[in-house]
Amino acid sequence: MDIKKIEEGVRLILEGIGEDPSRPGLKETPVRVAKMYEELFEGLNRTVEDILKPIEGESHDEMVLLKDIPFYSICEHHLLPFIGIAHIAYIPAGNIVGLSELAKALEILAKRPQVQERLTSQLADLLMERLKPKGAMVVIDAEHLCLSMRGIKKPGARTVTSAVRGLFRTRQSTREEMLELIKKRG
Questions:
Q1: Residues 60 and 147 in one domain
Q2: Is 1 exposed, middle or buried (0-12, 13-18, 19+ CB in 10 A)?
Q3: What CATH number does the domain containing 156 carry?
Q4: Is the pTM of this model over 0.70?
Q5: In this structure, are 68 and 18 located in the same domain?
Q6: The domain containing residue 34 runs over which residues?
Q7: What tens digit of pLDDT does each residue of 148-165 get?
Q8: Which residues carry out catalysis?
Q9: Is residue 71 domain-shared with residue 152, that is, in the same domain?
Q10: Is there a domain that residue 93 lies in?
Q11: Measured between alpha carbons, how far apart are the two ends of the chain, in Å?
């Protein structure tokens, strides 16, 4: 990541909105924003090939669901956050993966300039590719600050996306079971 280029870009934005980037309150802002971007977009420097490795000697053939996983990402259209929860399920064809690996996959993909629809599909496709399960389903529910803060200004509006693969797509009862499980609290 080119930190100096980000700093210069932030200085130009401050000047562009009519601010003085050298005034005391803004003097360090370009550096702070550059460091923040480095953290927010660290998924660009990570590879998903190193995650979702099956656990040797373990096997299972019924649904595994990790739900209510908090996440944030940055919308690539306005560079504003979208924040929400994800639910990731798969039906192993024998191979299972550590539960934290599911959350890690979400985090790596979310820490890139994103759109929610693509993030949802990328997660489901990654599960199918890496684990070869009987099916995978991902549901993401998020609030987009580009919708809440600007344009139509509808704070609290939620966007829900789903990606359905394998048995979750072909068996309505399996899809319904997953949706019922994510509704249950406690």
A1: yes
A2: exposed
A3: 3.30.1130.10
A4: yes
A5: no
A6: 3-40
A7: 999 999 999 999 999 999
A8: 75-78, 116, 144, 146
A9: yes
A10: yes
A11: 41
